[in-house]
């Protein structure tokens, strides 16, 4: 098994090499992302291994198929960057549905606490021996209402964390969980009620046509004034320009963003010596009440180890047994996501 590994980082090599060796697979690491321009690199490889900002559109799929590449192994949970309809029947698409929901949920809480307790400001001040407390006043999470959109694996861990802080939890999900409802940890409400009553809103649903720009000018207007928005899911759930407008008008009190609509142009790379052309991103980052991390929520040792193990095991199962429970769409109607209709 020869795997072309795109958008490779040193931490990927460290976690994937031992797993690939144990399975007898060969991996060639490419720093570049997979796109129509770079698909050629996959020639002669049985599989490509890709991440969140690689492009797996119809044109890329057709090129991969023409080279005889049979597998797209996503080393992530989300698959909004894959044209699943086009892939169906042409190429196998495997993913890692869960690697550490704790990693992402804990990062969401880390960003939230950093923001509302102004830790990002205090850190820089004390580094400069400035011990003033001026403008560092935060607020307690205890007793506040958090609205969690998407109550899957990550959303539920985040709900547990928020419950531990003594918060009232409202939840919205297209497919509510009866188990969560019965647990009494959260109350399911309509999206409009969640928007209207939450002091903090955290997004944990996938990016689909339906959830694209779920937070836009009109939905942000329905929120409580001063709401804190946390997005560790996918950038395009939030209309970034509308968010900027709502921050300027003080409708949004703070934003914690691990993901950004146009992140594929920037995230994971060092632009510190460049003029950043994206004015919305530059303006958001310039705001004292906005924290941006570059799609870092997954990045824990535990998650990296699970991602590598599951990705290699997915490929092994598919090649040796002819099927893999983490396949997205090749056998429509059989794979888990197809059964629930979530991937179309
Ligand atoms: P999951 O599949 O366990 O849960 C997603 C939930 O969203 C499900 O309960 C589903 O019913 C719900 N949902 C689907 N459509 C919806 C809609 N239209 N409105 C409201 N809810 C809807 O997924 P998991 O593992 O909890 O991951 C959630 C998201 O987190 C992923 O889709 C991915 O985009 C993002 N993620 C981000 C990472 C990061 O490093 N920042 C790492 C891993 C995942």
Provide a descriptive summary of the structure in words:
The chain is an alpha/beta fold and 344 residues long. The chain has two domains: 2-99 and 301-340, 3-Layer(aba) Sandwich (Rossmann fold); 101-292, Rossmann fold (3-Layer(aba) Sandwich). The protein is 36% helix and 14% strand. The chain has 13 helices and twelve strands. It has helices spanning 10-23, 58-67, 84-87, 101-116, 119-127, 153-164, 178-183, 191-197, 217-221, 240-248, 279-286, 301-321, 336-339; strands at residues 2-5, 26-29, 47-50, 71-74, 92-94, 145-149, 168-172, 187-188, 200-203, 227-231, 252-257, 290-292. The protein has a seven-stranded parallel sheet with strand order 8-7-6-9-10-11-12, sandwiched between helices. Strands 2-1-3-4-5 form a five-stranded parallel sheet, covered by helices on one side. Helix 1 (10-23) runs parallel beside helix 12 (301-321) and helix 4 crosses helix 6. The longest helix has 21 residues, at 301-321. Residues 338-344 have low confidence and may be disordered. The protein binds 1,4-dihydronicotinamide adenine dinucleotide (NAI).
Short précis:
This protein has 344 residues and is of the alpha/beta class. 36% of the residues lie in helices and 14% in strands.
Question: What is the H-and-E element order?
Answer: EHEEHEHEHHEHEHEHEHEHEHEHH
CATH superfamily of the largest domain: NAD(P)-binding Rossmann-like Domain
Question: How many structural domains?
Answer: 2
What is the fold-level CATH name, i.e. the topology of the largest domain?
Answer: Rossmann fold
Q: Which oligomeric state applies?
A: single chain
Output the radius of gyration: 21 Å
Provide the residue-averaged pLDDT.
Answer: 94
State the CATH class of the largest domain: Alpha Beta
The CATH architecture category of the largest domain equals 3-Layer(aba) Sandwich
The largest sheet is: 7 strands, parallel
Physical arrangement of strands within the biggest beta sheet: 8-7-6-9-10-11-12
Strand content: 5-15%
Q: How far apart are the first and last residues' alpha carbons, in Å?
A: 29 Å
Bound molecules: 1,4-dihydronicotinamide adenine dinucleotide
- Sequence stretches where pLDDT stays below 50 over 5 or more residues: 338-344
Helix percentage range: 25-40%
Count, helices: 13
* Global outline: globular
For the secondary structure, the number of strands is: 12
